[in-house]
């Protein structure tokens, strides 16, 4: 049975909902699925004043656990045409794993998102494509 990590960042809960939907589908296909999120880096006062969804049930992931999975599915919104700093910061910390080859052979994927009126359809997944090519 394949072990799948669905790793997400969700400001308002939309990506969180998508992550759990993808988890349900992967489980139905026979995978062992874990859903985790990256830590929020915005100060709590700012996050609360901006109405971030801070009561998400998924546990916080650690970089050290990434090699424990056969596949990693990343879900995050885009901000100004790139992934949000919370996800970027988390993945930047995985550089040591990448350098040691600990992520070689992993299957990578990105949760699709609906296109925004300000961005082309193809550009929505571009920020995560290099991350999803971890088996290359």
What would you say this structure looks like, in words?
Helix content is 29%, strand content 15%. With 136 residues, the chain is α/β, with parallel strands linked by helices. The chain has a 4-stranded parallel β-sheet. Helix 1 (14-28) links the parallel strand 1 and strand 2. The radius of gyration is 15 Å and the shape is globular. Residues 120-124 and 132-136 have low confidence and may be disordered.
Quaternary structure type: single chain
Number of helices: 5
Mean pLDDT: 86
Main beta-sheet strand count, sense and barrel state:
4 strands, parallel
> Which term fits the overall shape?
globular
Low-pLDDT parts are 120-124, 132-136
Strand content: 15-25%
Q: Over the alpha carbons, how many angstroms does the gyration radius reach?
A: 15 Å
Judged by helices, strands and strand pairing, the structural class is alpha/beta
Separation of the first and last Cα atoms: 23 Å
How many strands appear in the DSSP assignment? 4
Strand order of the largest sheet: 2-1-3-4
- What order do the SSEs take from the amino end to the carboxyl end, as H and E? EHEHEHHEH
Helix fraction? 25-40%
What's this, in brief?
The chain is of the alpha/beta class and 136 residues long. The chain contains five helices and four strands; from the N terminus they run E-H-E-H-E-H-H-E-H.
What's the topology here?
Elements: E1 3-8, H1 14-28, E2 32-37, H2 44-49, E3 71-75, H3 85-92, H4 95-100, E4 107-110, H5 129-132
Parallel strand pairs: 1-2, 1-3, 3-4
Which features does this protein show?
four-stranded parallel beta sheet; disordered C terminus; alpha/beta; 136 residues
């Amino acid at each position: 049975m394949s072990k799948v990590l669905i790793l997400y960042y969700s400001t308002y809960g939309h990506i969180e909902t998508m992550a759990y939907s993808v988890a349900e589908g992967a489980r139905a296909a026979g995978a062992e699925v874990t859903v985790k999120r990256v830590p929020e880096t915005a100060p709590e006062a700012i996050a609360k004043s901006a109405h971030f969804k801070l009561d998400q049930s998924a546990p916080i992931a650690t970089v050290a656990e990434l090699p424990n999975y056969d596949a990693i599915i990343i879900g995050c919104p885009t901000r100004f045409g790139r992934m949000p700093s919370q996800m970027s910061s988390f993945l930047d910390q995985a550089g040591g794993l990448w350098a040691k080859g600990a992520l070689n052979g992993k299957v990578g994927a990105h949760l699709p998102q609906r296109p925004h009126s300000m961005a082309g359809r193809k550009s929505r997944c571009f920020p995560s494509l290099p991350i999803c090519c971890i088996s290359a």
